[in-house]
Please model this.
Amino acid sequence: MNVVVFPGQGSQSVGMGKEDYESSELAKSYYHKADEILGFGLSDIMFNGSDEDLKQTKVTQPAVFLHTAVRYYLSGKKPDAVAGHSLGEFTALVAAGVLSFEDAISLVSKRANAMQAACDEVEGTMAAILGLEDNVVEDICINIDEVVVAANYNCPGQLVISGSKQGIDAAVASATEAGARRALVLNVGGAFHSPLMASAETKLSEAIEATTFNESDIPIYQNVDGKPQTEGAIIKENLIKQLTSPVKWTQSMQAMIGDGLSLYSEAGAKVLSGFIRRVDRAIATEQL
Model:
């Protein structure tokens, strides 16, 4: 049984999608459609812009969505299930038929702008903690007198935390003392997947509530709880919660493997394949 997984922000690279655009009329049509919906030349930035241009949140998120969606369309895959990491969940919902391409890229753009506004309001950051058990990192966060929370459960032994700059600095110091193999502050624009994204969640929830979510014929393993869902109303509710809740990717992978999904196809990158192999080295992976 096959699952297609979609990476999120951080998987971008200059030039991504250009080969698809130049070799496929189908791909070209989606790139033109995206430019029209967004009202700016996203495809030109993706193909010809600088790394700094592509790192802007308002560009990065729709760019990763567009690239991975097109890779999925070109693959012709008919998966038994889908999942996406953070931003990637929007692409997963398109693959499952829950959202239209047009509605999804519009929501992704609104999400990016809302997150950027939240970052401008409150200074925050994130850090990757490697080599500690999840419960040890969770305890470290709880015992710091600042906003610091577990944000991305990426794979066993890799947990990203999010919060205020002072809180992250304190947590990194505590994790190092606790024996972390690495505790590294990340070069990100804000405290994603933490309570500091509350204003972004409020803004995005209005747009999500106004968007049609269809029922899904295949399970979507969602970030908020790592569990499979097919009901449009629940999927919508979980997507709203996603901005201030941790990405439970480890839990999603464990659930998918437990449900018998044995082939993992990653659209447009090789980020999630590495995480999957950290859960079970026997699992087969491929890139779309």
